[in-house]
């Protein structure tokens, strides 16, 4: 009974999705991604002078979601 | 027939209507598309003047026009640009139109690919709609490179699928032609990375099929050896521009492009380049431009209406695609699903660069991973892959047709459960557009209706409903994006130019209030587009000739600009200051000027060293009265020849490896292959 159930779960997409999520969670340095994306959203990747304030909403929301703030982020660049 | 055509044209018309401000040229191209436009305009403008441009004499005191090898200029579809120009359109409108058509060609290819994979016209049409209304289409105005690398890849995989199913000449020609376009449109390494992941996954998942395919394919090539030889010759011709680029690069006469050295000192980068150390250091590749920098999982859904035209990280597929993926949780897992997910994961991990270990491993062990950065370009391949995956799930969902009431209720409950779960997740994220809520609600209603007995209704109804679901949310995103871009309105140089020789270079750079220049210093391309001289500085170059670069480091930009402001000097000998020619003296007159060649008529009273302050490289030749003479590297970095007294014609001509013929030949051969493939496929049809 248990074997059949496990076999059934393995034969479904959900098994594959869990595998991919585990792989991504374990093998990716998300902290590095967070810092790089923050820099990019702030605009310094392109103009080097923090001018990209146009999508500020996105940027601030992004930091908030990751438990950070513009000040903390800028101080630690 | 007419209905079929309308079926494809109507969504396209809607797409064009929403993006009309971009298409008619009111909003300028930004970022890399601006670069590509500058290159394309320079190329076709000069081509229609009867010159294949190989040298750019306007910027950085003259440098090789490298970029022509990597901007998709030889593609038969690109020829639309000069054609439209001939029809009276301005260059920027012609370019926007060409980009839209090329993207549409990709969407059509995707239709055929989905049809070949899933054997269903309705699903193929949904694939066409989903790709048309994905971020790939919008990104053509900031990152046309996405489309340049994805479109031939889509056609390549379509012809590969078709060739596996049916080995005939048309499919083989199509496969070869798509590969030729990959090689001639941009750096082929992104495609090779995708092919690498595909081959790896397919060998692991379908070993027997791969073996059988290889055997059949080998036999086909033996049986049709003249065709095989023709295709090999075509591929060699297609790689010609890239080889010419590489040969010039390897000559050490120029550094290109300087941007690849963005994170080391320019001198260090240049030293490595001229010492023949190709490729980039890992830090140069990994420091920026990875997928993690451009995309964030949360932003697949939120604030999609807030993205600025100053960003090239807009990434979305229709929200309904995610709904399908979520609904597929408990569907049966098969090998094609695994293949698609493995490809997406593999490409994603490579694209993440240093944030994941995969890219570093490949960089260390496979040579071509040293030759491309901007790994976020790989994200463009995830769009068609995710759409194919979702449509395959839709196929499985639609195949399920319950007829007893208890099962109907159970499935309907499951559908509602998944949708409510997604709604909670979206609510938690915040910043969700109303169109996403609408899509989610309609999706739940449609699927519940379907499983409660709606599956008995005509399938056409369902496919049209799904098509609408696919379009609602992306249309709102694109609309918002177009509105956000309005403040970027300004005009780029777009008129046809007959380049004129100027004796003096300007002191100050051209200024532009265009907001697009806030993001990248694209003034270099402004000069190329308008074919006017830039100030005599090298600074931080996109590309520069070797000796000019060295001189700028030795003298400094100010001293160099002071000297090289004047283009022609006459010297009695090099120990005395030269005499500046500014076009008013009768001793020297310009007889001819184009970007590859300049001729002067001289009438001197005594022999003099004639110095033309345009960068010296070994590929330049000098002629006096039609006879080759020794070209000297004068004043450290420029072109000089000794001219006798009396009347003479002094010419400087640029002859890089392959000359202009390699580009013309590639254009003709690609066009011929395109026609041949079309004829073959039409006959088979």
Protein architecture, described:
- Chain A has 77 residues and is mainly alpha-helical.
- Helices cover 69% and strands 0% of the residues of chain A.
- Chain A is built from five helices and no strands.
- The longest helix of chain A has 15 residues, at 13-27.
- The relative contact order of chain A is 0.09.
- The mean pLDDT of chain A is 78.
- Chain B is α+β, with helices and mostly antiparallel strands.
- Chain B is 56% helix and 9% strand.
- Chain B contains 27 helices and 14 strands.
- A five-stranded antiparallel sheet of chain B has the order 6-5-9-13-12, covered by helices on one side. In chain B, strands 7-8-14-10-11 form a five-stranded antiparallel sheet, with no helix packed on it.
- In chain B, a hairpin with a 7-residue loop joins β5 (568-571) and β6.
- In chain B, α8 (144-165) runs antiparallel to α9 and α10 runs antiparallel to α18 (335-351).
- Chain B starts with a helix and ends with a helix.
- The mean pLDDT of chain B is 91.
- Classes of the chains: A mainly alpha (77), B alpha+beta (685).
- The A-B interface holds A 10-17, 20, 23-24, 27-30, 32-34, 36-37, 39-41, 43, 45-47, 51-52, 54-55, 57-58, 61-62, 65 and B 288, 290, 292-296, 298-299, 302-303, 306-308, 310-311, 313, 328-333, 337-338, 341, 345, 348-349, 352, 354-358, 393, 430-431, 518-520.
Oligomeric state of the chains in view: heterodimer
Beta-strand percentage range of chain B: 5-15%
Spans of chain A of 5+ residues with little confidence (pLDDT < 50)? none
| Structure class of chain A | mainly alpha
- The count of DSSP E runs of length 2 or more, i.e. the number of strands of chain A, is 0
Looking at the structure, what is the overall shape of chain A?
rod-shaped
Q: Provide the residue-averaged pLDDT of chain A.
A: 78
In helices, the fraction of residues of chain A equals 55-70%
Give the strand content of chain A.
under 5%
Provide the spatial order of strands within the biggest beta sheet of chain B.
6-5-9-13-12
**Helix and strand string of chain A, N-terminal first?**
HHHHH
Continuous helix count of chain A? 5
Most residues in contact, chain pair and counts: A-B, 36 and 41 residues
Over all CA atoms, what is the radius of gyration of chain A? 20 Å
